[in-house]
Amino acid sequence: MSDDRRITVDEDTRRSSRNGAEMPDGWRVISAWRIARIVVMDPELEPFLSLFPPSDLSDPPTARKQLAELAAAVPVTDTAHLEIENRTVPADPDVPVRIYRPHRAQGAIVWLHGGGFVMGDLDTEHPWATMLANGSGATVISVGYRLAPEHPFPAAHDDIYAVLNWTAEHATELGIDPSRIAIGGHSSGAGLAAAVALRARDEQGPPIRFQLLHQAGLDDRQLTWSQRNFTDTPFLTRGKVAQMWAYYLGSTPATPYAAPARATDLSGLPPAHMAAAEFCPNRDEGIDYALRLMAAGISVELHQWPGTFHGSQAILSAQVSQRQNAELAGALRRALAE
User: What are the backbone dihedrals phi and psi of residue 15, each rounded to the nearest 5 degrees, phi first?
Assistant: First the structure.
């Protein structure tokens, strides 16, 4: 096994290697007070690691440019069976959306790009919105919400809630069944989706049929095992997560509408599909949120993809990525079926 396929994960421990102290399976001693676990990346993803530089968010314009370059390298699936339209949703301020309408689509999803609340737009999400619309048969309404740090919480949250209301109010015009509207997204977009689902429940807003949450960023506290130990994983690091939450929250204390993991009551929320990457700081908060949804009586499908990292689904040649992307679309198709 090539050393390049290994990620070393450190954890402070009271265990000592002195006197032949026993270590858990899969761990090796690297000092008297620290241990490391060797984990293996999917071999089809390994050659592409150099394309995912360990960038940070210290310079938002540069980070946005890097994400745009990564997105531009992702092949766009065939759009022949899609009607694609740019619209503006009236709000304060107005919100740009891009609508991907398959032939005979009846359900829809309000879809939110990732990018740590700081990066991403309608163009960077174009390959994924196209793939999701083609694979699910649902109308995808991709939202160009406002970005931090220029626009901290609740700007993006309010933009998305305005689009959700607009979608429900214009269902007939959009050619969709108003009882079959889902919400979802990647990474920070998935966190935003979960937060808006909480608000829709609390304010008795438009009924949401389903949540499609992929590699979700849900918790600003960074207390989970994966947040504390996956400090230097590809593309998303602990430091980058801390930066994104600092930009998004600004001087505002975190609430469940900003960080959904802080919600104490998850009852009455829509069914969810939660997908996590194995080597991702966000992994455990997504799994924990899914388990808490189940404990609250919500139907949940939970999937952790072995050997993957945050954003690795962009490596379309890998079989695990193909399965991930197909499963996202399939979960949405099943959820919106009659």
Answer: -70, 145
Residue found by looking up tokens 């198709």 in the block: 333
Q: Is the dihedral of CA 186, 192, 196, 202 positive or negative?
A: positive
> What does pTM read for this prediction?
0.90
Q: Which residues of 222-255 are buried (b: 16+ CB within 10 A; e: fewer)?
A: eebebbbbbeebbbbbbebbbbbbebbbeeeebb
Please compute the mean of the pLDDT values over residues 190-218 and round it to a whole number. 98
What is the crossing angle of helices 188-202 and 155-169, to 10°? 60
How many C-beta atoms lie closer than 10 Å to residue 287's C-beta? 18
CA distances from 198 to 201, 202, 219, 256, 259 (A): 5, 6, 14, 8, 11
What would the two tokens of residue 270 be? 């829509």
Q: How many residues are there in the chain?
A: 338
For the stretch 282-323, pLDDT in tens is 999 999 999 999 999 999 999 999 999 999 999 999 999 999
The burial of 13, by beta-carbon neighbours within 10 Å (0-12 exposed, 13-18 middle, 19 or more buried), is given as: middle
∠ at Cα 233 (231, 238), nearest 5°? 35
- Half-sphere exposure in the Cβ direction for 120 (13 Å, CA): 25
The answer to whether the CB of 207 falls within 8 A of the CB of 213 is no
Nearest-angstrom CA–CA distance, 29 and 35: 5
Determine the pLDDT at residue 55: 67
**83: Cβ contacts below 8 Å, ≥ 6 apart:** 99, 100, 101, 102, 103
- Cβ atoms 248, 153 nearer than 8 A: yes
126 φ/ψ angles, rounded to the nearest 5 degrees = -55, -45
CA 237 to chain centre: 15
